[in-house]
Write a structure and sequence with these properties.
alpha+beta; Deoxyribonuclease I, Chain A; 2 domains; 7-stranded mixed beta sheet; 7 helices; 19 strands; 30% strand; globular; sphingomyelin phosphodiesterase activity; EC 3.1.4.12; cytolysis; hydrolase; Sphingomyelinase C
Length: 378
């Protein structure tokens, strides 16, 4: 569009003001678009009285005050960015742990701002049946596409059940994935082996193939073996390594096109703190085993921290902070141009439980903090 207008100075001023207001508005909303506008004003005096201007402008958007071209560019930018969150929500079975406000927190988390506006959310420790069903129901409006909870059953809610699923195992795997976008494939996989109490659950991983607009993204949510003194002579770290190998073998056998993105997320129970510069650490080994790239880290320095989290402080007041939760990308597939893991520290409205006639009040959604990942796709 190209127009040349002959205007008096007053009219020119009005139009220029409106253009500037519009540009500021667009900028304030961080819209990315291809806009070219030039304004030329030639003012001259005709017989000392009449001022006129020539306004020449070209706009590559079709319509000055927004339109389909602005929206198309915005959606293109959004299509190239994926927002994935993982959160261990500490919903242990109320049969064993009745005083952790699981149902209260299911409502608080479902209404919380921190969990909104993601593309995909991985949930860990959604063990309690009632509370997890409640949480998933509360998230349904924001994330209508959901998996069932890992290891709770092997019915037709899954496209496949793989690994060592057992209907007689006392506890499920406590992992679910919810998505803003359609989930076109859902597979649950139960690990071959755990140790300690983990051996009494169907721990494993959830695989999802998600279609965001015109591209497929593959997201695996997991919760690896916990560090546990009840493992006896079995090293929890060695169990985790074998579980990571099971994940990598699954991905290898899936034959995912190498131009599609593959993400791993969840509570890995692998501590980053004091391990980043140690090539022999379990942290370094995790990335090697998964063939994954190390993300950029921002936000709080730990995902579990008894010095700042009211639930963690009550349970283990003297334990050091740990960084256990991640969203990372496979290097064998499409490589993000940027991936950032940001630890959030949202505070919940206060909630109270009563035990032995004593009231306890907390102001956190879980003992873990959520990790929000921003992935820039090429």
């Amino acid at each position: 569009m190209h127009n040349v207008l002959l205007l008096d100075t007053f009219s020119f001023g009005l139009i220029r003001t409106e253009i500037v207001k519009y540009l500021k508005k667009v900028k304030s909303h961080n819209r990315v678009f291809d806009l070219f506008i030039t304004i030329q004003m030639e003012v001259w005096n005709v017989k000392g009285k009449l001022l006129k201007g020539v306004l020449s402008f070209g706009i590559g958007l079709g319509v000055l005050y927004g339109g389909s071209s602005v929206q198309a560019d915005t959606s293109t930018d959004q299509n190239n960015t994926l927002k994935v969150m993982t959160h261990n929500v500490y919903m242990l079975s109320t049969n064993l742990y009745p005083n952790w406000g699981q149902s209260q927190r299911a409502d608080l988390i479902g209404a919380a701002d921190y969990i909104k506006n993601q593309d995909v959310v991985i949930l860990n420790e959604v063990f309690d049946n009632s509370a997890s069903d409640r949480l998933l129901g509360n998230l349904k409006k924001e994330y209508p596409n959901q998996t069932a909870v890992l290891g709770r059953s092997n019915g037709n809610e899954w496209d496949k059940t793989l690994g060592s699923y057992s209907s007689s195992t006392p506890e499920d795997g406590g992992v679910a994935i919810v998505s803003k976008w359609p989930i076109v494939e859902k597979i649950q996989y139960v690990f071959a082996k755990g140790c300690g109490p983990d051996n009494l659950s169907n721990k494993g991983f959830v695989y999802t193939k998600i279609k965001k607009n015109d591209r497929f993204v593959h997201v695996i949510g997991t919760h690896l073996q916990a560090e546990d003194s009840m493992c006896g002579k079995t090293s929890p770290a060695s169990v985790r390594t074998n579980q990571l190998k099971e994940i990598q073998d699954f991905i290898k056998n899936k034959n995912i096109p190498n131009d599609e993105y593959v993400l791993f997320g969840g509570d890995m129970n692998v501590n980053k703190i004091n391990a980043e510069n140690n090539s022999d650490s379990e942290y370094a080994s995790m990335f090697k085993t998964l063939h994954a790239s190390i993300p950029s880290y921002t936000g709080h320095t730990a995902t579990w921290d008894a010095t700042t989290n009211s639930i963690a402080k009550y349970n283990f007041p003297d334990s050091p902070a740990e960084y256990l939760d991640y969203i990372i990308a496979s290097k064998d597939h499409a490589n993000p141009s940027f991936i950032e893991n940001k630890v959030l520290q949202p505070k919940s409205p206060q909630w109270t439980v009563t035990s032995w006639l004593k009231k306890y009040t907390y102001d956190d959604y879980s003992d873990h903090y959520p990790v929000a990942a921003t992935i820039s796709m090429k």
